[in-house]
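Q: Predict the bound structure with adenosine-5'-diphosphate.
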Amino acid sequence: MRLRSKIHLYSSVLFAILLIVMNLATYYMFNKLSVNNQIDRVEAQTLQIANGMRQAAGKIPTQDLLRGYVPVDGMIRMIGPDGTSLAPVTSGSQQDLSKRKAIYDTSARVQVDQRYVMVSIPVIWSDGEVMNVQVTESMQGTMDTLQVLRVVLIVVTCIALIPVLFSIRLLGRVIMNPISAMTLTMKEIRRSGRFNRLVLEGQSKDELMEMGMTFNDMIELLENNYKSQEQFVSNASHELKTPLTIIESYANLLKRRGLDRPELFNESIEAIHSEAIRMKEMTEQLLLLAKHKEQWNISMETLNLSELAMGSAKAFRNAYGREIHVDGQQEVFGYSDENKLKQLLFIFLDNAQKYSEDRILVEVGSLEGEGYIRIVDRGIGIASDKLPLVFDRFYRVDEARNRQGGGVGLGLSLAIEIAEAIGVRIELHSAEGVGTTAEIWIQREVSKIS
Ligand code: ADP
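A: Predicted complex:
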């Protein structure tokens, strides 16, 4: 069953039950009150008649007395101890009552049935005998009133249900419209592949509006993710296309003229080899960027930053044959992941060796509770307007210049991701033609600070 129908059904049934129970209670109370009222009234009336008759006994003939006291809608009679009734006197409409069996009671008695109230009171008569004065009155009036009440309550219940049903319908619409709109938008997104937003009308700040806004935020996030994913894939394929084209053209060259011109062999193999290395590096970086940080297996520990910087510098010195000088305090500690911090250092050292010719300086120290490693080069530097862009994926300041250097523009964006994952801060300062300084700021573990 649809949610809208469920809201209608459950709310309507609940309201109907509530109304019926309320009206039944009202009817029951009123019924009881009316019947009790009539019994009280007939009792009081019978007592009054009995007193009057006792006083007038012997002076006025009993039959006349009975005729004088006969109720408007009922019967009055006197019953002797032997059960004989003096000719009962009935009102015009209740002549059938005289056929009722006369029963003598030794004490006062009240009898109520569906249609009549009967009250019997013993009275000492003029001849010393104890007689019963018995008054019977029809309940027709009370029953008629109750009948009217029944009709009124039924009509009122039905009338009251109409606005209730309307308001439930309205409530269902208020709740369901945003949900239906959301479902429709989702279907539309699935069908068209476009990231549509919900149209949110009104100023209300209720939960449904909040749900709509959250939905739109989510769609925006998805769209942004999708766009950057798309951008990433197209950038990656574009970047891979160039080395592949170079490899293909050199392979073609070798195929066509490799045997006739052996001098082409070395050049081709060199180019194919370097492009293959570039592609391998790029694929590795791409894979790391594509991985979720949870899969990076970060293990945080206290590290000797001086040792780490010296180790990395040595490895670099050996690999590239560049002069790298490490400067700074001996005992600087930082709390981070060793492998990832090394990787970060390599990214900056790699950039320093790619974009400078001079000696590279690595400084290790601490300032205001933080350890730092600084990589300083005196190379080509980065123009200040380009500096904020170098952290973007695939961004290279000068594409033509970098092509020979080998960079693909992924190093610094990877550095940002790594820094975030291992809880360090990175800063890049640069001046075009002067050089670049990359800083890694690492929290020191409190227990190790002496
Ligand atoms: P790449 O692999 O191209 O070096 P990065 O993301 O590491 O990619 O760097 C982006 C761009 O920033 C580089 O292409 C380069 O133009 C510039 N850059 C980074 N580091 C330096 C540096 N030390 N000196 C000069 N330019 C730099």
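A: The mean pLDDT is 87.
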